Amino acid sequence: MVRLSADKYLEALAVYRGGELFFPLIAAVLLGTQDGVIYADDADEPSQFYVEHAFGFAQLFGRPNEAFEEALANY
């Protein structure tokens, strides 16, 4: 579980937009217009993401990764 660098936010946003669920607060964090944190399963080639808005609203999306989800459970 790594904190995603800002240069990967648009990549994460593209994955997010391709998913079934869309919440404006999550998109705002991915766009950098709202405060929050973004974690991913890999720094260089992320495929699963966890976005947490500053208010506590959060969402997991992308290709499932068991190790990432286990690390997230401990977060």
Structure notes:
With 75 residues, the chain is of the alpha+beta class. 35% of the residues lie in helices and 24% in strands. It contains 3 helices and 4 strands. The longest helix is centred in the first third of the chain and has 9 residues. It is globular and about 30 Å long. The termini are close together. The model has no long low-confidence stretch (mean pLDDT 96).
Structural class: alpha+beta
Count of individual helical segments: 3
> Sheet bearing the most strands, described?
4 strands, antiparallel
Rg over CA atoms, rounded to whole Å, is 11 Å
> How much helix is in the residues?
25-40%
Cross-sheet strand order for the largest sheet: 1-2-3-4
If you average the pLDDT, what whole number results? 96
Uncertain segments: none
How far apart are the termini? 9 Å
Which percent range describes the beta-strand content?
A: 15-25%
Assembly type: single chain
Number of DSSP E strands? 4
* Shape label: globular
Helix and strand sequence: EHHEEEH
